[in-house]
């Protein structure tokens, strides 16, 4: 083993030493002086023959420093790609605290740099207290290993043979249980694939696994939705006897991403016993070979319904498959039965579908038939039963004479609980389909068609669930709720036949039941209850059933109100006045439903598939809170066609795009003053906690420590200190009143002076110039609302104008502060302590830098959420809703936006 030091060229930092372990593995040591630069680069060094590398340390603000291994571009071009394992270790003076992260990646011309995004906190690399600095230097050890490989491909774009030989696999066997070896990427059909090798250990044994993967498509500028149906064989080659080769056959539809339900990985995790792989001719001279045979269906999938005829609830699709007879004959030659070919997915009213055919029948009994089905896609991110009622027509198209096309129509109900098939096992005989005189396979191409009409429905079981949607429950038994959103359209599209619509099945009294609706041609609508066979056999007719059917139509003038609150769980039952939660919904449900309105409450507010998104298009009123904010963006406002009123239960509208709301002519209002007492009292508490250095003392006790000096050296009285509030308003005024008895020097800055009576009562002095007030203050409290003018108001420059060691309390808005400037101020001592309950964004992510900065006493957003405040803003919300329903004005101070006009302080 040899070691060498690389000369330091211009523009790099520190020095690097490389120990050569083998031809394809190195141990590198990079040391550099403590440095706060945003990017540091090591000297370049040789690694694994011609491979030139260097290390790059990049700081992303205060959150994390990232460490990358960068391969020089020219070397990648020569070979195409390299697979390498690298382990980074940040050395600590206490070896047990050294920080290590590792990764295995393939370097390509498009991705010449790979590494760890969140390697270490930047302050740990500059502050000696963390133990990562030796003699003013930082030391990083890098364990690097490169795969020696041979790669070959033969064939065309629809059919390929790939051979991948790993020539030094022993370097990676110790990590194959945690990491996977990834082959070079190759393109087949419209997708980009890789072979993956990994090791699996469990209670049943130790195995080698082999997979085909279609993710990480980095060699072509493809759209995200690339998809193709493939049939492939994965083989582990026995280098001593070809008859001992181990292979498996697979098939399915792959995609670049899996959000459309396509596979992104398929294979066998237990392809071969690991001991057999090691000692039975598969591994020879540290070399193993893997072979892939892959064939892609050539197809074209398109929407055939004219644009002017499309609706949200209907769609038509054409699916052309080329070389279909050849493909069927291949299956017959291989004696493959029951193989299915799936089309691309398509959506009708956000419900996913795809077409599925079985070229040689779905089973051995139907091997002479083409089986044809409409498959309903399932959302695996939700746990409840999903269902849909569909009218569909499946066809094999005659390319020359449309009247000769084979068409079959049906209606059906699909449920994840029952998974009824929609389609036909014996759609058409293969003899008829492939008869040259029939003309269905023109040029060995078959064309399939599907027409889909979806009934948009909601089905709820149980009294509790039915009550949530505002439907009265007055029976001693159980209630079931079935809502048909496009009922009239579905009946009108009956194609000249009466339509029987059935609900999802449900269980009651040992019986399997369904609700049914008959849409007759004469316009008659008949509702009924249908009993299927008894659920449990040999129970006869079960118990007698008493049931009630109601046909409910929305009353004129009724509104859909949606409230977004946090879930309280068991805490909701601990206090009957705890109303600001999903379980209580501000106590508005009985009152709203008695007025004929629909009231929906949820805590699910983030992402395109959240519960709130489902109601955005048709809600009339949205109630939100600052404590669990639902961000009302311009995009959401644009889609909310019925929205007229945005209410904040409490005070604060940081989560609402006020300009977009004004442009849409909406009204935005809050319950002004409902929690000012709560917030002002909370601010007094936070001031005392910071002044008395309370938090470190509390944490001493919880850790079992006792060190008075560590607390007392930085603890002060509040008396005689100078405190300034930025903004007054109701909260600031109450704060100044409560601070008066502490004999502080009180200052305030606002657009306007306080009422003279309040100014005399508190003794507070007006400061017209904010920047002139800041250097005078030992303590600063933020009480100004968030506007375009106050957003980011306290940036690095303004904080620098404050007194060294200033204490800051902010219960107004996290966005008023420059996040990074606060972190830097707390780290440098410019800010002696920071406390508050407001963040940006909210809820604060786990890696929000304020969670980890020194000298803070932050909490979740709780200052205005006391039980007393909840009762006040619940009553205020009810009052404004009542005024809205009656067409009356709100109290003037509650308006933030009034029918499109912003309040003056927000302009």
From TrEMBL:
Please state every residue range assigned to the domain named MATH.
25-144, 159-294, 314-452
Q: Where in the cell is it found?
A: Mitochondrion
The answer to whether the entry has keyword Transmembrane is: no
The record, for InterPro entries, names: D-isomer_2_OHA_DH_cat_dom, D-isomer_DH_CS, D-isomer_DH_NAD-bd, FDH_NAD-dep, MATH/TRAF_dom, NAD(P)-bd_dom_sf, TRAF-like
What's a GO cellular component annotated to this UniProt protein?
Answer: mitochondrion
The EC number(s) given in the record are 1.17.1.9
Residues the record lists as binding NAD(+): 750, 785-789, 811, 837, 861-864
Function description: Catalyzes the NAD(+)-dependent oxidation of formate to carbon dioxide. Involved in the cell stress response.
Q: Which family does it belong to?
A: Belongs to the D-isomer specific 2-hydroxyacid dehydrogenase family. FDH subfamily.
The cross-references to PANTHER family, in alphabetical order and at most eight, read: TRAF-LIKE FAMILY PROTEIN
What's the protein here called? Answer: Formate dehydrogenase, mitochondrial
């Amino acid at each position: 083993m040899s070691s060498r030091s690389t000369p330091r060229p211009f523009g790099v930092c520190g020095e690097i030493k490389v120990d050569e372990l083998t031809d394809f593995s190195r141990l590198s040591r990079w040391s550099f002086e403590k440095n706060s630069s945003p990017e540091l680069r090591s000297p370049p060094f040789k690694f694994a023959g011609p491979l030139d590398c260097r290390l790059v340390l990049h700081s992303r603000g205060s959150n994390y420093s990232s460490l990358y291994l960068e391969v020089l571009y020219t070397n990648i071009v020569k070979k195409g790609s390299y697979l390498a394992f690298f382990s980074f270790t940040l050395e600590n003076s206490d070896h047990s605290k050294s920080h290590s992260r590792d990764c295995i990646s393939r370097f390509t011309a498009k991705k010449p740099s790979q590494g760890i995004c969140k390697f270490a906190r930047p302050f740990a690399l500059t502050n000696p207290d963390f133990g990562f600095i030796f003699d003013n230097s930082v030391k990083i050890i890098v364990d690097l290993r490169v795969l020696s490989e041979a790669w070959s491909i033969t064939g065309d774009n629809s059919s390929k043979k790939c051979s991948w030989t790993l020539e030094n696999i022993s370097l990676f066997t110790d990590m194959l249980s945690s990491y996977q070896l990834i082959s070079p990427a190759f393109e087949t059909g419209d997708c980009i694939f890789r072979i993956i090798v990994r090791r699996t250990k469990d209670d049943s044994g130790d195995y080698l696994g082999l997979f085909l993967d279609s993710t990480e498509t980095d060699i072509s500028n493809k759209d995200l939705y690339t998809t193709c149906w493939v049939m492939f064989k994965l083989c582990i080659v026995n280098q001593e006897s070809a008859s001992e080769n181990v292979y498996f056959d697979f098939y399915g539809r792959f995609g670049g991403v899996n959000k459309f339900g396509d596979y992104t990985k398929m294979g066998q995790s237990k392809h071969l016993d690991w001991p057999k792989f090691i000692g039975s001719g598969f591994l020879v001279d540290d070399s193993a070979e893997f072979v892939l045979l892959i064939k892609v269906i050539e197809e074209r999938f398109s929407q055939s319904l004219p644009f002017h005829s499309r609706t949200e609830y209907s769609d038509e699709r054409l699916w052309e498959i080329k070389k279909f007879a050849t493909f069927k004959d291949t299956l017959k030659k291989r004696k493959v039965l029951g193989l299915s070919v799936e089309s691309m997915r398509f959506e009708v009213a956000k419900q996913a579908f795809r077409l599925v055919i079985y070229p040689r029948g779905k089973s051995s009994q139907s091997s002479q038939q083409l089986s044809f089905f409409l498959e309903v896609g399932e959302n695996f991110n939700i746990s409840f039963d999903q269902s849909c009622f569909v009218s569909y027509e499946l066809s094999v198209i005659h390319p020359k004479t449309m009247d000769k096309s084979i068409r079959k129509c049906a209606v059906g109900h699909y449920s994840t609980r029952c998974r009824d098939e929609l389609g036909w096992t014996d759609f058409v005989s293969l003899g008829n389909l492939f008869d040259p005189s029939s003309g269905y396979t023109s040029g060995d191409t078959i064309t399939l068609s599907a027409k889909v009409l979806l009934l948009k429905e909601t089905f709820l079981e149980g009294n509790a669930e039915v009550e949530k949607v505002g439907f009265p429950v007055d029976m001693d038994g159980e209630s079931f709720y079935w809502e048909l959103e496009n009922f009239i359209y579905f009946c009108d599209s009956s194609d000249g036949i009466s339509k029987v619509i059935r609900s999802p099945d449900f269980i009651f009294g040992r019986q399997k039941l369904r609700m049914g609706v008959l849409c007759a041609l004469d316009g008659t609508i008949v509702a009924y209850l249908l009993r299927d066979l008894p659920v449990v056999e040999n129970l006869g007719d079960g118990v007698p059933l008493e049931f009630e059917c109601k046909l409910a139509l929305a009353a004129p003038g009724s509104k859909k109100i949606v409230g977004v609150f946090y879930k309280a769980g068991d805490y909701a039952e601990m206090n009957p006045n705890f109303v600001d939660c999903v379980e209580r919904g501000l106590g508005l449900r009985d009152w709203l439903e008695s007025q004929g309105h629909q009231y929906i409450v949820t805590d699910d507010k983030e992402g395109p598939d959240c519960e709130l998104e489902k109601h955005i298009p048709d809600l009339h009123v949205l109630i939100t809170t600052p404590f669990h904010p639902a961000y009302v963006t311009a995009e959401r406002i644009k889609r909310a066609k019925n929205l007229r009123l945005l209410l904040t239960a409490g005070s604060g509208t940081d989560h609402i795009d006020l300009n977009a709301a004004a442009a849409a002519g909406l009204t935005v209002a809050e319950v002004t003053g409902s929690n000012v007492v709560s917030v002002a009292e909370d601010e007094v508490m936070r001031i005392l906690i910071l002044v008395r250095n309370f938090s470190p003392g509390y944490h001493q006790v919880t850790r079992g420590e006792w060190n008075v000096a560590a607390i007392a050296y930085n603890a002060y009285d509040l008396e005689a200190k100078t405190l300034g509030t930025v903004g007054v308003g109701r909260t600031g005024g109450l704060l100044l009143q409560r601070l008066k008895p502490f004999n502080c020097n009180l200052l305030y800055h606002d657009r306007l002076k306080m009422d003279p009576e309040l100014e005399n009562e508190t003794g507070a002095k007006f400061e017209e110039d904010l920047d002139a007030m800041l250097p005078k203050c030992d303590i600063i409290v933020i009480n100004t609302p968030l506007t375009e003018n106050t957003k980011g108001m306290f940036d690095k420059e303004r904080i620098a104008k404050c007194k060294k060691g200033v204490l800051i309390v902010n219960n107004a808005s996290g966005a008023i502060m420059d996040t990074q400037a606060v972190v830097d101020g707390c780290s440098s001592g410019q800010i002696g302590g920071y406390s508050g309950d407001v963040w940006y964004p909210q809820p604060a992510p786990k890696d929000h830098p304020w969670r980890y900065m020194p000298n803070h006493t932050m909490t979740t957003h709780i200052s205005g959420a006391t039980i007393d405040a909840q009762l006040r803003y619940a009553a205020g919300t009810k009052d404004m809703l009542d005024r809205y329903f009656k067409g009356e004005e709100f109290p003037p101070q509650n308006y933030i936006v009034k029918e499109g006009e912003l309040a003056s302080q927000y302009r």
